[in-house]
Write a structure and sequence with these properties.
Layout (H helix, E strand, L loop, with lengths): L1 E4 L25 H17 L1 H7 L7 H8 L7 E2 H4 L3 H6 L6 H10 E5 L3 E3 L4 E2 L9 E2 L3 E2 H6 L2 H9 L4 E3 L3 H4 L12 E10 L2 E3 L2 H18 L6 H10 L3 E4 L7 E7 L3
Parallel strand pairs: 1-3, 1-8, 8-9, 9-12
Antiparallel strand pairs: 2-5, 3-4, 6-7, 9-10, 11-12
């Protein structure tokens, strides 16, 4: 099973650590594409900081993030699971997992990244700022860039198992599973139910996905189909409704009444 997560927009910058070495990251087939995005981002932020702020959607009070991007090649790195933060990652709380769950996280989790395409939780990366909807000078839309090269890396990481795709709509645009993989693709939508009415709420969505992933890692089972995944989640106490399979995969609705 491969669980594909979105990144967090905010990131924790390590105070120390060895500098980035792209060749040490997982999925080495992505190295050439990573080099291009890294060079484009560093060059833009170093040479045109004001324009970089506009491209990156940053305000004048966030120019420190532009300066950070300009030094990414020399910036200290840390494990990706210590860089990404935010609601989903706080709920997942990787550092407090049991030892066996941490081992599963290393093999089963992958994080979508605008800068690196996809990283594993043990990959050492710097804190950076690059949104999935950015359009980089000389490179074009980040999503379109990764769409050309990410598919092979994801399918290789999937192997013959199930893909649990928890990406947000922005990062889902980086790569969409082809129809032949659809029987092994599950997406999850979180619905907040109050007084019989259901709606998608961002905070509930992120926090619940973090808790779902944590529960799956601690449980240890390895479902091979979306229906089997729904069964595991139900066993773990979640209210799950499964949609009909489509050419894009099968959507599971997880219903929550409180965060």
């Amino acid at each position: 099973m491969l669980i594909l997560l979105p990144p967090s927009e905010g990131k924790s910058a390590p105070g120390r650590g060895r500098p980035l070495e792209l060749k040490t990251l997982s999925q080495p087939s992505l190295t050439p594409a990573r080099e291009r995005v890294l060079d484009a981002l560093v060059g833009l932020c170093r040479d045109q900081p004001d324009h970089a702020a506009t491209v990156l959607g940053l305000s004048r009070s966030q120019l420190d993030l532009v300066a950070r991007n300009a030094t990414l090649t020399d910036a200290p790195t840390a494990r990706a699971d210590r860089i990404y933060d935010g609601v989903l990652y706080e709920a997942l709380d990787l550092p407090s997992l049991s030892s066996s769950a941490k081992r599963r996280a290393a093999s089963r989790l992958a994080i979508t990244s605008s800068l690196f395409g996809m990283v594993r939780v043990g990959d050492r990366i710097p804190a950076y700022r690059l949104s999935g909807d950015a359009c980089m000078p000389g490179l074009g839309p980040v999503a379109g860039w990764w769409r050309e090269s990410l598919g092979e890396a994801v399918t290789d990481a999937m192997g013959k198992g199930l893909l649990v795709d928890l990406r947000s709509s922005m990062y889902a645009g980086f790569w969409r599973p082809p129809a032949e993989l659809a029987p092994r693709v599950a997406t999850v939508r979180v619905l907040h139910e109050v007084a019989g009415r259901r709606q998608v709420v961002s905070h509930f969505n992120k926090a619940t996905k973090g808790r779902l992933v944590r529960a799956l890692l601690e449980d240890g089972r390895d479902p091979r189909t979306p229906a089997a995944l729904a069964g595991v989640l139900t066993d773990l106490g979640w209210q799950v409704e499964i949609d009909e399979p489509t050419k894009k995969g099968t959507q599971l609705d997880v219903i929550v009444s409180e965060v």
